[in-house]
Prior knowledge:
Helix content of chain A: 25-40%
Radius of gyration of chain A: 45 Å
Shape of chain A: rod-shaped
Strand order of the largest sheet of chain B: 1-2-4-6-7
Number of domains of chain A: 3
Number of strands of chain A: 22
CATH superfamily of the largest domain in chain A: PPM-type phosphatase domain
Largest sheet of chain A: 6 strands, antiparallel
Shape of chain B: globular
Number of helices of chain A: 11
Oligomer: heterodimer
Amino acid sequence: MDSQVLTRSETIGHAWQWSGPCTLAAVREASTGARGFLAERGLPEADLAAWELILTEAGNNSVIHNPGDLPDPSWQVRLLCAPDRVIARIHDGNEGFEFPEDPQLPDDDAESGRGIFLIHSLTDFRKQEHHPEGNILTLERRHPPAAPAEDLEATLDAMTEELASCYESLSAIFRFTAEARRTTHLEDFAASLLRHLSTITASDRGMLRVVSQNQIVTLATHDCEAPPACHVGASPMPLEAAAVNSRQDQWIEVCDAYPTALSRLVHPFYHEDELMGVLSLGRQNSAEPFNAGEVNVVHTFAEFLAQQMLSRRHEEESIRSSVARREFELAAAIQQSLLPPPLPDIAGVSVTGHCESALSIGGDFYDLIPCGENGYFFVIADVMGKGVAASMIAAVTRSTVRAFSHLYQYPARLLERVALQTHDDLEKLEMFVTIAVGIVDVPERVIRVANAGHCPVVIYQPEGEFTEVCPERPPIGLEKNPVFTEYEIPLQQGMRILGYTDGLVDPRNQRPTFETQSDVADWFAAASASGPRVSALKSALLESLGHNTDPNTLADDQTFLLIGFD
Amino acid sequence: MNTERKDNTLLVSDIRELTAATAPEVKASVRKIFADGLIHIDFDCSTLDFVDSSGLGALISLQKLANERGGKLRLLSPKPGVVQVLELTRLHRVFEIVA
């Protein structure tokens, strides 16, 4: 390879020539050599970079279109550095081609086809000539004369402006971080951010839309009208829809398709794979496209906003979760407080009970109400469902039963009144309550029980037999005026009564349970045979149910009450 | 050229020129290394002094490679000269550029 500098007279500037083989490696050697030559002539960096690229692209073209059977496959470059321009004459042995007058960029995903566009963009004059000895491409690029001293100030101003812009971006981020902590409403924060971003990127309009519950809603606008909310993926605005669907920035610049359009950039921003929003900026008074630095600022701000949105969301979720947990704890405490406290024996009648919910709160409850010196009225019930709704209905049912205290002596009539009173509300809520109530009336030596769709009430008799008061009518809430049967069993010393909910026979519970209601009755008869106190019976029953020994949680509430007469 | 695997991202670095002379080898090497489990490509441009249209084509090819696996190509710390070429060809809209 042969590289030499030819010096011409100063009036026509300096010339440089390079010749060598037509290969990609040689082309790079020539273009870097040309860069060095022009650098010695004092050309600015922009021109040096431009010529290095121009000559590389032109040389690549020569190599790629070299037919391979040329007698002299060489490549030659001559550069003339005139005071106002650089002229390049590139000679190769190819047939050459017509240099297009207005080359266009290929599609964004095309892997080739940009070389000619680059040469065209970086030069002011292009001419292709065909000669018998080969092809000559002449390219010219004007360069500004050496900067006079007074322009240094302008250059310094431009540099200061650029630095200030970077500083402004950074300081804005810091400022917004502090502002985000102070601002209560995300809308106010977003409006401030959008205003500043518009200033930094010299945009005169902007719009920030975010995703909320699968809708894209406008959070802030700058000098433009807010479009209506729309479903994600169904935006009526073509650029926004394209940005969301393609997950890529969308642009509009002044071109044949959009001769009067402002320069616009639409940027969809994400957190991991979740679309957070779309940031749009536009220039109405300038066709200048957004440059890479400005795009970077837009991306940085959008990312910052996404982080703020996530931070807010986590904060709100945390508060909501905390409030919900507190409400839940309060509801559980209230429900526990509605259960009867330890109660004394009355006229030989002893009582106890147990209520454990599958969740912290549930729909089971029992009630034991002293009836003066005569004995106890008892209630065991199970509201369909679990959680807060079931616990609320349980509380309402408990209060309703207590409101009919004058009917404690007549359990069936009491249930009929409770059914009438609560039917409409339960029907509206599509809920129902199974409930068994009864009274142990010592003076009259009788137990009266009524059962609305609930598990049997088991009554152990000292002779070793037991009676089950089974449901004959549907639960409360299904019929407005049901008629209930009242069972009357003579009260005998040594009797034991068990009321329970279906959690004791629910196979979904991962703790030991009874398989059938008959198993419950059999167990109860066996356990009561020795005449234990109800407190001992309770301990035995809890042990059978794995209470305190099995760490598994319940799938269904477990509740029971025990009454003894001695 | 250096390559380094970080989780599901392949970091490509230490490339000084991406041109018609070097791009095919870079492209082929990355394709060979881009094994299962890799999704994204981070192309460290901090040492990249020069890129031509063939180099841009190679970057687009690598972006397609990442896109095929649901990933993306990021250009890290490109020098001003490289950014200028990206802007000239409007590819700064296509690539994610991390300054």
